[in-house]
Amino acid sequence: MQIEQSFFDRHVDVVARAMIGTTFLVDGVGGMIVETESYSADDPASHSFGMRRAERTATMFGSPGHAYVYKVYGAHWCVNFVCRVASAVLIRAIEPTHGIDRMVARRGTDRLLLLCSGPGRLCEALGINGAFDGAYLMRAPASLLSRESRPQIVRGLRIGISKGCEFQRRYGQKGSAFLSRKFPD
What domains lie within the chain, and their CATH numbers? Predict the structure, then answer.
């Protein structure tokens, strides 16, 4: 069942947990979300920290249910799902299930565990770039499907940030082999 926009009109941590087990597709390519991170305006690691609005972050200040896409280190695209104003969920990893042949061609590897384990790899595999910024997630080319069952979710520290490192705002499907990095036991 397709996820509705109201799904995103909640606290970002609630949405980040609820995204685990949903299916995210772009033009029919993608899979089940297994890892997310949450960011909000009161979080020093967030692009919207202190309600700082800029051209690059404009999508984060828009309505829930849109993609916020940006480049990290000038090299890798990252996709986030906008929740309430100035908050978004970074999609860190998916378990590839749809369009694997297209993902393999885009990534140049047939190692299934490496196709979408990390936000940059995920975006490359799904063909996401800056043109996807602002895309409405409930309309083509995007598709978001509800989870079929409630997975066991683990929580831990976020990865690859220098501010707000102490916040446990990284969520993942317990035991998934497709995580960008394992959670501590």
Answer: 5-173 (3.10.300.10)
